[in-house]
Automatic annotation (TrEMBL):
Catalyzes the formation of N(7)-methylguanine at position 46 (m7G46) in tRNA. InterPro entries: SAM-dependent_MTases_sf, tRNA_(Gua-N-7)_MeTrfase_Trmb, tRNA_methyltr_TrmB_bact. It comes from the Bacteria. Keywords: Methyltransferase, S-adenosyl-L-methionine, Transferase, tRNA processing. This is tRNA (guanine-N(7)-)-methyltransferase. The gene is trmB. It catalyses: guanosine(46) in tRNA + S-adenosyl-L-methionine = N(7)-methylguanosine(46) in tRNA + S-adenosyl-L-homocysteine. The keyword Cell membrane does not apply. GO terms for cellular component: tRNA methyltransferase complex. Pfam families: Methyltransf_4. Pathway: tRNA modification; N(7)-methylguanine-tRNA biosynthesis.
Length: 235
């Protein structure tokens, strides 16, 4: 999430009168992550720019492009990209260790269909992604901000969903997942209220085969915790 001067994250920045998703924060890099950034960053990282990018030029080919917001350490992103080599994947993440981690996986697995942008996702969507240019978007396990007084800091809220929907081509999809039931209920309400989106299920969807089960998710499932997937189609 974005942060104010006190360091507390905000979803809406009243000083700039626009929605935000994150701001870059420093993190501790491992030697391997730093090496991956130095060696692979120039090839696989796309610099932020206040101009629409040519996705075909970014990837060196024309293919359906799926955007992921907040890929964390990148294990899921790498698995999805490896399983769908026919698609391009553009990951947006602000935390440097996560960028380094995914770059390391890209190098180890020789994944040529992944590109990364280290920047605020709202600004990337607003300035770099053309309307109707995405085949899909993934938002997996965003911070639930489970305390009621922190709910306003959640990523999945109306303004961002509207922005995301405008960047997805008709027939494309938005896939969100969470392991926090109350957040799942809010996601369902917010996504259902967006006129450009239609639920692919009556309520929650079965986990699509392309989304792997993470080790944390497996641990939660063994403890009886639920996981909720929401897959909406762009109309």
């Amino acid at each position: 999430m974005s942060e104010n001067k006190s360091g507390k994250p905000l979803f809406y920045d009243p000083t700039e009168h626009r929605i935000r998703s994150f701001v870059t924060r420093a993190g501790r890099l491992s030697t391997a992550q730093a090496r991956a950034i130095e060696e692979l960053g120039p090839r696989f990282c796309v610099p932020y720019d206040k101009a629409v990018v040519d996705l075909g030029q970014v990837f060196g080919r024309s293919a359906p492009t799926v955007l992921e917001i907040g890929f964390g350490m990148g294990e899921t992103s790498a698995k999805i990209a490896a399983g769908m080599p026919e698609k391009n994947f553009l990951g947006v993440e602000v935390h440097t260790p996560g960028v380094g981690s995914l770059l390391k996986l890209i190098g180890e697995q020789q994944l040529d269909n992944l590109r990364l942008v280290q920047h605020d996702a709202v600004e990337v969507l607003t300035n770099m992604i053309a309307p109707g240019s995405l085949a899909g978007a993934h938002v997996f396990f965003p911070d639930p901000w489970h305390k009621a007084r922190h709910n306003k800091r959640r990523l999945i809220q109306g303004p961002l969903v509207s922005l995301l929907a405008s960047r997805i081509a008709p027939g494309g999809y938005l896939h969100c997942a969470t392991d926090w039931q109350e957040y799942a209920e809010q996601m369902l309400e917010v996504l259902s209220a967006e006129p450009l989106l239609k639920n692919s299920a009556e309520t929650y969807a079965e986990r699509p085969d392309y989304r792997p089960v993470t080790k944390f998710e497996n641990r939660g499932l063994r403890l009886g915790h639920g996981v909720w997937d929401l897959v909406f189609t762009r109309v």
